[in-house]
Specification:
- With 312 residues, the protein is of the alpha+beta class.
- It has a domain at 136-237 and 255-275 and 291-305: Alpha-Beta Plaits.
- It is built from 6 helices and 15 strands.
- It has helices at residues 35-53, 107-115, 149-164, 192-209, 260-269, 279-289, and strands at 9-13, 16-20, 26-28, 33-34, 58-62, 72-74, 87-92, 97-102, 118-123, 136-143, 171-174, 180-185, 214-215, 227-230, 240-241.
- Strands 11-12-10-14-13 form a 5-stranded mixed beta sheet, with helices on one face. Strands 6-5-9-15 form a 4-stranded antiparallel beta sheet. A two-stranded antiparallel ribbon has the order 1-2.
- It is globular and about 55 Å long.
- The termini are far apart.
């Protein structure tokens, strides 16, 4: 989809006609990145993105007027959706009803969502229909200023080492904002009680070992100059930004899978910019490296029981 396009167009995907509008609207004012370019990115990244979206309850984060305008989250799939958009019903105890999340399992649905100004894609850690069983565990590393993503890199490496002692492989990605996330693929029957307890235990352990660098307490006043390990994301009712999702910052940055070598290099070189990737850079990386998060789709691992974990 070239940059100098008309403001409206109709495309056909898998026999479905999609009307696209406001393609010249600037979504990122600093660089002039438009809605049309956003759609183009999602179309081109779809081969590696869709496997990570398929059958996961998807929460939309919509920016109708770009990143400097008002945004809103949308859990319920829009009522006025095409009949071919599939949904995933998830019981909400708080609302006492089922919420029908969109299931972006195919390119047509992804393009339809992007046309609704769904800039960010936030997914559950579960795969339907096993909503109560997470297929992934995540550690969300959030730096409290003046700490940066470089400090997150150091904490991520400590996490990697701790997980490796439990024979668990882990995979890092940038949040696309200011932090890092470390994922542990499971793909085995586990409960959120188990994964959350495990994540909390490791976060607390790192806080004990590195109290000047790490905080696992939810209180924001304790985070200044430290990396907060958010273990609470491991919850049936929470979502995390999906790999390859755009983020709504000044630049069209992307939540990008990286190698452990890149994380280590960023830490050693004290270079936060080495872990910032914009849309075109991510497309180039996928072309040369493939999907670094591919193993998360099938690698089976089991967590040890938290009461069997000794000091590491």
């Amino acid at each position: 989809m070239p940059n100098n396009i008309s403001d409206k167009t109709t495309i056909e995907v898998a026999g479905k006609k999609l009307k696209l509008a406001n393609l010249n609207k600037v979504f990122y004012p600093l660089t002039g990145f438009t809605k049309g370019q956003m759609l183009d990115y999602y179309i081109r990244i779809a081969p590696v993105l869709l496997p990570h979206l398929a059958n996961r309850p998807l929460t939309f984060k919509r920016y109708p007027n770009g990143v400097t305008g008002k945004f809103f989250y949308q859990k319920d799939c829009p009522v006025h959706r095409p009949e071919w958009v599939k949904t995933i019903p998830v019981w909400s105890e708080g609302n006492r009803k089922y919420i029908n999340y969109c299931n972006a399992a195919d390119l047509s649905t992804l393009i339809w969502a992007a046309n609704l100004a769904v800039l960010e894609l936030h997914t559950s850690l579960s795969l339907a229909p096993e909503i109560a069983s997470p297929s992934l565990l995540v550690f969300d590393l959030d730096p409290g200023p003046p700490a940066t993503i470089v400090d997150c890199a150091q904490v991520a490496l400590w996490l990697k080492e701790m997980l490796a002692k439990q024979d668990l492989k882990s995979f890092p990605k940038t949040s696309g904002a200011k932090g890092l996330q470390v994922y542990v693929p499971l793909n085995t029957p586990l409960s959120y009680d188990h994964t959350k307890s495990y994540a909390r235990l490791l976060a607390n352990r790192l806080q004990e070992q590195y109290p000047q660098k790490v905080v696992a307490n939810m209180k924001k006043k304790l985070r200044s100059g430290k990396v907060f390990i958010d273990w609470s994301q491991n919850d049936e009712h929470k979502t995390t930004v999906c790999v390859y999702s755009l983020r709504a910052g000044e630049l069209a940055t992307v939540s990008t899978p990286v190698t452990w070598e890149e994380v280590e290099a960023a830490w050693h070189e004290n270079n936060p910019n080495s872990l910032v990737f914009e849309a075109q850079q991510v497309l180039d990386r996928v072309k040369s490296r493939g999907d670094l998060f591919g193993p998360l789709l099938g690698l089976k691992q089991n967590l040890p029981a938290t009461n069997q974990l000794g000091k590491s």
